[in-house]
Design a protein that fits this description.
heterodimer, A: mainly alpha, B: alpha+beta, 3-methyladenine DNA Glycosylase II, Chain A, domain 3, Alpha-Beta Plaits, two-stranded antiparallel sheet, 8 strands, about 10% strand
Chain lengths: ~200, ~270
């Protein structure tokens, strides 16, 4: 269990980072990384949704295998994740307004995000995921990996915004270049041999 | 014929099962969302909040200092905010909101203008190479421009503007009248406080904020007000008077005849609208 835990942690945060190593969820990664505050909010929301999605879809898939309809998994996953997040948003709004203002506004943005669907789908294919507990941990660490990447990029973009740059580079182009550099830096982690 | 054959080859059983399951899941989820939304509706909320929110502009610019229009609507109903804190909402809707809240309102639509025309016409004190940020530049002996109340031109206002109405043209910020929603964020942001809010109906503006005497202004800026007072003398409606070496236009009296615009030797007074 311990080695599996460490492997999941390293995979989620670095080796298989959803944004910079697997290139899923690029839209919020570039769209909401202008300010560190909103990046943190988005990161927390993504982590939350990823945990919920893992928790739901893993048993759901087992059920679908039994019924012999696993070819419908993508569309059913999208339906289920989107509606459950919608439900949770309503519940959070009622129960805890402060949590809603910190996270709730970002929730609708990511309900059908490919990073979230990616977690649900890759949970079924990953060798590290052996049961519901590991699926849950994978969701959690993948979300934290997303948060790590988006907060790093937001920090750099915040500083770069104030720099005297060539106007053709300023704004979005330099962010793309930065994201590329980050991906190159994260590639190094793929040389970590897990399980040895 | 071939396409007909293709139609026969489709496994209709699987198609129907897929459609059935997908529709079933969608229906189930729809019902769940509906039930939960009914159970968890926020009760006890003042119904006027929704009415007020519907009449607000919905720009979510944050110019009022609240987190979006719904927060502002709440503050309005609770009496914490004033209707005029919102610049984006048009006059008709403000009157409607006032009637919802049982208040009197007779406001005028405003618009932001940058009261500086310096930019490349204004001399530089030193060459600034640092953060592209007016507030930073302003900390270094009031910025790189020789004029202490001139636009620095690094675009803090342009970056806070929620509707991208401000552009830096020739090193000076210019507000696009058609886009400006008068939220007032630029006015709060400008470290030089040279962005002013004027009535939208105003036809002339004074594009200078330098309160120094004529000689000093003449040395540093080609388009700075030298306080010659020609505008005040030529105005047939006595709408202009000089205060702190700058002309002040009384928009209540101004008819927009444009005599002051023609007469101004430094092109400080501009015709707008």
């Amino acid at each position: 269990m311990d080695s599996a835990f460490v492997a999941l942690l390293l995979t989620g945060l670095f080796v298989g980072n959803y944004v910079v190593a697997r290139f899923l969820g690029m839209c919020p990664f570039l769209g909401l990384s202008k300010k560190v505050d909103s990046a943190v909010g988005m990161g927390i929301a993504v982590t939350f949704v990823m945990v919920v999605a893992s928790l739901l879809t893993y048993p759901l898939y087992q059920l679908m295998v039994k019924l012999g309809i696993e070819y419908l998994r993508t569309i059913v996953f999208i339906f289920v994740i989107a509606s459950i997040v919608q439900v949770l948003e309503t519940v959070i709004k009622k129960i805890s307004p402060s949590l809603y203002s910190a996270m709730g506004v970002y929730l609708p943005l990511i309900t059908t995000n490919c990073a979230v669907l990616g977690v649900a789908t890759l949970n079924l294919e990953s060798e590290l995921v052996t049961g519901l507990a590991t699926a849950l941990l994978n969701g959690l660490f993948s979300g934290l990996g997303f948060t790590l990447a988006i907060v790093i990029l937001a920090g750099m973009r915040e500083k770069l915004d104030k720099q005297p740059l060539n106007k053709h580079l300023k704004g979005f182009p330099i962010s793309m270049i930065l994201a590329g550099f980050m991906a190159m830096a994260f590639v190094v982690f793929t040389y970590i041999k897990l399980g040895e | 014929m071939e396409s007909l054959m293709l139609l026969i080859q489709i496994n209709w059983r699987i198609v129907i099962i897929s459609i059935g399951i997908t529709a079933g899941v969608a229906l189930l989820m729809g019902v769940i969302i509906m039930v939960i939304a009914n159970v968890f509706t926020i009760k006890g909320q003042d119904p006027r909040i929704d009415d007020v929110k519907e009449n607000l502009a919905g720009a979510n610019c944050g110019g009022c200092g609240y987190a979006g229009c719904s927060d502002f609507a709440k503050a309005l109903v609770e009496g914490k905010a004033e209707i005029n804190d919102c610049g984006a909402t048009n006059k008709d809707n403000k009157i409607k909101i006032a009637s919802i809240l049982g208040k009197q309102f007779s406001g005028e639509e405003m618009i932001s203008v940058v009261a500086c025309n310096g930019g490349i016409n204004c001399a530089d004190k030193f060459e600034y190479k640092g953060y592209c940020d007016c507030a930073y530049a302003n900390m270094h002996s009031s910025g790189p421009k020789a004029c202490n109340s001139g636009c620095i031109g690094l675009g803090n206002c342009a970056s806070v503007c929620p509707v991208e109405a401000i552009k830096i043209i020739d090193e000076v910020a210019v507000v696009d009248r058609d886009r400006c929603i008068a939220c007032g964020l630029c006015i709060k942001t400008c470290p030089k406080s040279i962005i002013k809010s004027i009535p939208k109906s105003a036809q002339v503006i004074v594009a200078c904020c330098n309160e120094c005497k004529g000689k000093e202004v003449m040395d540093i800026c080609k388009v700075g007000c030298i306080a010659c007072g020609l505008c005040a003398r030529v105005c047939p409606h006595a709408a202009i008077h000089l205060e702190n070496n700058l002309p002040i236009i009384d928009y209540g009296k101004c008819t927009g005849c444009g005599l002051c615009v023609d007469k101004c030797p430094k092109n400080v007074i501009h015709k707008v609208g």
